[in-house]
Each structure stands twice: as C-alpha cells, then as structure tokens.
Amino acid sequence: MQPETHTGLDSPPELWWKPAHKSEKVWVAIAFAWCMVLFAMMPLWHWKGGQNPSGIRSRTNPQAYMARVMEMIQEHQSGDDRGMPIVSPPPGSHVYLAAAAYQWVPILKLQKDVEYILHLSALDVNHGFSLYPINVNFQVVPGYDYGLRVTPNAAGDFRIVCNEFCGIGHHTMVGRVIVEEGAPVVASVEGGRR
Amino acid sequence: MTVSTVDAGASRTGFRTCPATGRQIHLGAAQLIKAHAVASVVALLVGAIAAVLLVLTRWQAVHLLPALWYYRILGVHGMSMLIFFIIFFEMAVLFFAGTVLLNARNCAPKTSWLAFGLMLSGALLVEFMMWGGYADVLFTSYVPLRAHPLFYLGVILFAVGALVTVGIFFANLVVAKRERTYRGSLPLVVYGALTAAIIAVITLVHGAAIYIPTFLWSLGYMNVDPQVYRMIWWGLGHSSQQINVAAMVAIWYMLGALTIGAVVLNEKISRSAFVLYVLFISMASAHHLLVDPGMGPAWKIVNTSYFMYMAVLASMIHGFTVPAGMELGMRLRGFTSGMFDWLRRAPWRDPGFSSLVFSVVVFGFVGGITGVTIGTEQINIIVHNTLRVPGHFHATVVSGTAMAFMGATYYLIPIVFQRKVAFWKMARMQPYVFALGMLIFTMSMTFAGSFGVPRRHWDITFAQAQFDVQFNPVVDLVLAVVALGGLLAATGAFMFLAITVKSVFFGEPLGEIVRGREVPGIPAGITNPPAHAADVDARNAALHGPRVGWMGPAPGTIALVFIFLGAFIVYFFVNWKILSFVWRIG
C-alpha cells in the first residue's frame, strides 16, 4: 500500500482533488488580492495619474510624415546647430519629430509647463525615443504616428538617445530637445488655471 | 520517496533500471536525451563565450569589441542562449518526463531523430549566417531590418523540429497511458512538463506565423508590417520564456523531490496554477508593446496583465508551494524544530539542492518582482529598452531557468549518462559562483537602467555622435560592477561546461550504488535518497492538525513569502513614485 503523502515524481493516489490547508488558502487569497491591486493601478493611473502612453495613434507613411516635418521646420525654424535646424513651435501646437538612421530631425525648442502634442515616427526602421536624462522612453515604428501630449516640467538641454537597434551606427544617433523657462501666463495653454 | 514502478527490479527488454528512482529507463529515449543535452551544452558554450565578449565591451573602460562585432555577437548570444541552449534542453526534459518518469518507451524513435536533425541543421544554419555577417539584425530581427533569407529559414527549420518533438512527447504520454506503465494520474512533474509542451505549441505557432511571412518578405514576395511583426514576434519571443517558466517550475518540483524528499502540498492547487499558465501566459507579448504606437490602452492593460495577472497569481502560488513542499518534506523526515531548522539542515553541499534554492530565490525576488513591475503599462515608460529590461530577464531566464537546468544536469549525468559528475568539489561550488555572479549582474544592470542607460548599445560615451551625452559618473562605476558580476557568472558557466563535458565524454562510470554510502561525484539524493518513513501519512496528518494553527505545516515558508510580498509592494510603489516625477505625458 502506497502512502498518500507523495512527491512530485510520484503518481498521486486516485483522488487528488482535495481541500487545501488553511495556510495555503490564505496565501492564494492574499496573492489574488495583490494581483487585483496590480491590475487596478493601471486604469487608476489613466484616471488620476499624469503619465500614460495612450497618445493619439494613427497610420502614416514616411513621405507624408517627412512632409509634415519639413513644413513645421519651414514655419518655425529659429536657428540651427551643426546643420540641424532648431524649431520653436508655438505653445500647444503639434510638433513632429522624425527618426531616421542615424538622426532625430529636427532639434526642438519647447517651453516649460506648456503642453505640446509631440508626434513620433520613423522613416526607415524601428527606433527608440529615449529622453535623457529624464528617462522617458517610447518605441518609434515606421508607418505609425504616435502623438503624445507632453508637458515639460523643467528647463534644460536634453538629449534624445536612440535605444532601439537600428543598424551599425545606432550608437551615434542622438537628438536634442531644449526646454526654456516660458514667459509666464501667456505661455501656458491652461492660462489662468495655474 | 516512494517509487511507482510497475515491476521494479527486473528490467524489460530495451530498458534498464534507474539506480536512483528504480524507474525503467528506455534505452532509445536515453540516447535522445543525451543528444539533446549535448547540443544544448554546446549552444551554452557558444553563448557563454559571446557573453564574456559582450560584458567586456559594455564595460566602458575595456570596450573590447568594435561596433560591428558587438552587435553581431549580441545577436549570437541571444539566439544561442534563449533559443538553442534552452529549447534543446527543454526537449531533453520532455523526453525525460515523457519516458523515464513514466517507465515508458519513446514511441517514435525515427521521427525523434529526424526532428533532432531538423533542429540541429536549423541551429547550425542560423549560427553560420550570424557569424558570417549575413544577419546583423539582433535576436529580435525587427522588420524592416533585413537578414539573408537563409537566416529566417534556419529559424523555421529549428522551430519545425521542436514542434515535431513536442508532438512526440504528447504521443509518448498517450502510449504510456495505454500501455499502463504507471498507475493513476500523471506525476506533478510530468504534468508541469505537459504544461510547458502546450505552451511550446502556442509559441511555435506564433513563430511560424511570423517567420514564414518574414522569410517570404526577405525574398521579396510580400510585405510585413513592422508593428504586426513586433506583436506576433513577441508571441514567440515572450511566450517561449513561458515555456521556460513552466519547465523550470516542473524541475523545481523534481529537484525538491530528489534532493530532500519534497512532497506535494496539494495537487489541486499546484495543478490549477499550471493550468493558469496555459490559459493566460501567451498574452505577455504585450509586455514589449506597452509604449508602441499600434495599440490602445485597453488592449495594453488587458494583455500585459495576463487578463488581471492570472499568470502572476500562478507564479506566486508555485513560489509558495515549492518551498512549502520542501519544508514539509524535511519536517516529515524529522527536521521539525523551529521555523527554519529544515532549511539549515538541508544538503547545501548537493549542487542539485543549492541550484534549486538559488533558482527559486533569484527568480522570485529579482526576476519576478522586476518583471511584473516593468510590465505595468505606465511604468514601462521609464523602463522600455533601458538596461532594466535585460536586468530583469537575466534574473528569470539565467538565474531562474538556466540555474534550475544546471541543477537538474547534476542528476541527469548519473541517471541518464550513467557517469559520475566530474570535478566534484568544483561542482559543489558551481551554483554558488554562478548565482552570486548573476545576482550582482542583474541587480547592477537594473540599477544602471534606472539612469536611462540603453540596452543593446555599443558606446554610451557617444564619442561619434552629433551631440554629446553626459551620463552621471555613477553609471561608469555601475557598468563596471555589471561587468564583474557578468564575468563571475561566466566563470560559473564555464565551470559547469567543464564539469559536464568531462563527465559526459571522459567521465568515470557510475558503478555500483550502495545506499547510504556517499561517493564523490554522485549527488547525495542518489546515494542517500531522502526516503520518508513508513508512517509518513500519520506524521503528515499531525503536521496538518489543528494544533499548528493558521500557519499550517510550513510556517517557515509562510514567513518567507510575506517577506517576498513586502519587497514586491515596496518595489512596485517606488516605481510609481519615480514615474510621477517625469513630464506629464498622455
């Protein structure tokens, strides 16, 4: 007669669907409750939190997207750095950033505490938008336009590091975002609310 | 440990009797297990050499490889380790679980060898294309990065071979049942292997669904959308890690039984947890698409959480039942005093046991906690493609799965290869060296990633870039620690390689095993099997009695899992806090 108590290598005795000990039930219940907390945090952050990767998502193609970028550069260019145009888009506007091996086009000059809709798309292969040193990361996929409502919360001279392998020159792909202290009141989209 | 053979003692034709478990080992199946295990170890060797080159490159002070070779070797490392090493080993596990553990035969020897040939030729083709520079697309080969068509063909051949082997495993289970080689239900370990096999089918179907179109695309016959590629590819890429999880948990139960007589606390709970894996785990493709433009928040939330974290629940259940089964197994064998006496008195010098403990602890505390946290939709914004990602998955796949596979190998060498484990003193140390190295490696990598240091990046000094990027000087120090941890872990891997190669090809025959007499080179679980006394059921009933209170038969484990839960809660909410400091994004 085999004993009932057995290891994982043994075939269990005939009827193995048996009630668990209280200690096991307690742990399963606590683990389940914790899983519900893990789950609830995501919708909760959409409702109350300030950082969500939702964005305005649409399809595009490299030609059409690059045309939007060029149009923006023409309208709002305010200078250049080593041949790369610097663009100062108006507060609250749509801002277009293109990723192509191995450049981020153009350089953006934004104002602090102002909301912009920052569009990301790639012209060739996948790229990774990684804003340094804030450490904000998004995937940039060719054929897709990712429009994110962003509000810079500090002035500074930031970098965009490409963090998705895009070819042999991947590690040279760096872009630039400048955030300036905006003129108060006027600069804010939300105007008097601050 | 009880033995459930049909006719223990006498061997049937074509079988021999396992000296450790008394089971009937089918000789044909043993040959297949050996072949797959050897192929797996060769892949590990290639991957480990690549690993050393990579850590010496990312250590900025050394910066060994030129850029081209860094990316090339990074691809080699990923394919060799995550695909070839792990899947070859898993196929060995499936043959072992489907035949040896059930006293059964392998029902389709010719097809098995054909499938092995397919896998081997696929693997060789892929390695050749990568080393030759025809596939500098890294492990993920994101379209529209383009590799030579033969690279994709190699992956397809390998996947088809693996799929056939999984089919043979299912067939072996059916044949074993029909031939009544075992009584009652499948043992839990085989049940876990079955779970892994089902997930393997799901995974490999995703693989076919993406690599066949990509192969045709590389020949110019069709288009593949980059976002669709990422979604389906990760149905392969992440789900294949879930094969590892299921196989690893099955091995946890096996090593617990072999080394200290761990018992199954409750079959219902453990098996239900395995079912949760099958049902939900393939949704994890979403973990890689949380900051992608192609999907909306509802899709991301439902999928990244495996429909409300049901697969996480499964892992938290195993994270309790495995150590609790070990504790109860020890208590049933008389180590009853205090909370942790069972742990102190465990066979820490048995590499099968130490591997098991390190695998459970590092997988849970580092891999599990970081994985769930960074797989949260919004938290992924401060994680995606930074070093935090490889920091996480090296804790799961290497410290968890590979460590468990190494521990199992110390038992497979005597049981299947009928050899003593060579370099026995080194074998006892190996799990400690490997686990410590990986712990340093994964934690420092995670830390470096929190500064925004990108993964898969040749030069974070950005010497050739258009604009300068100045990382915090701490980063240099942390990356040096990453390299040292990596080198220590690689040392552990090379120790393992030396031990296995010596044992398998030049090893001493196992010889007569006398119960109770320790022999260098044979793990204690084989020379001194952790048998339970005849009155084990009475002892078990007493340990479950009302006198022990709500903490039940395994109070030490209860204390440990609450420490785990505390660490989990702190880490999870600290990350939300850090996220709240960055720009408003929506």
Order of helices and strands of chain B: EEHHHHHHHHHHHHHHHHHHE
* H-E string of chain A: HEHEEEEEEEEEEE
Helicity of chain A, as a percent range: 10-25%
Mean pLDDT of chain A: 92
What key phrases describe this protein's structure?
heterodimer, A: 194 residues, alpha+beta, seven-stranded mixed sheet, five-stranded mixed sheet, 2 helices, elongated, disordered C terminus, B: 586 residues, mainly alpha, two-stranded antiparallel ribbon, 3 strands, globular, disordered N terminus
Structure in words:
The complex is a heterodimer of chains A (194) and B (586). Chain A has 194 residues and is α+β, with helices and mostly antiparallel strands. Chain A is built from two helices and twelve strands, in the order αβαβββββββββββ. Chain A has helices at residues 22-48, 62-76; strands at 56-59, 77-81, 84-87, 94-100, 103-105, 107-111, 116-122, 127-132, 136-140, 144-151, 156-162, 174-180. In chain A, the strands form two sheets. A seven-stranded mixed β-sheet of chain A has the order 2-3-6-12-11-8-9. In chain A, β4 (94-100) and β5 form a beta hairpin. Chain A is elongated, with a radius of gyration of 25 Å. Chain A starts with 21 loop residues before the first helix and ends in a 14-residue tail after the last strand. Chain B is mainly alpha-helical and 586 residues long. Chain B has helices spanning 27-58, 67-98, 109-131, 149-178, 188-218, 226-237, 239-260, 267-280, 297-304, 306-332, 341-344, 351-374, 388-415, 424-449, 473-506, 524-527, 536-543, 555-580, and strands spanning 15-17, 24-26, 584-585. Chain B has a two-stranded antiparallel ribbon. The radius of gyration of chain B is 24 Å and the shape is globular. Chain B starts with 14 loop residues before the first strand and ends with a strand. Chains A and B meet through α1, β8, β9, β10 and β11 of A and α2, α5, α6, α7 and α8 of B. β10 (144-151) of chain A pairs antiparallel with β3 of chain B, so a sheet runs across the interface.
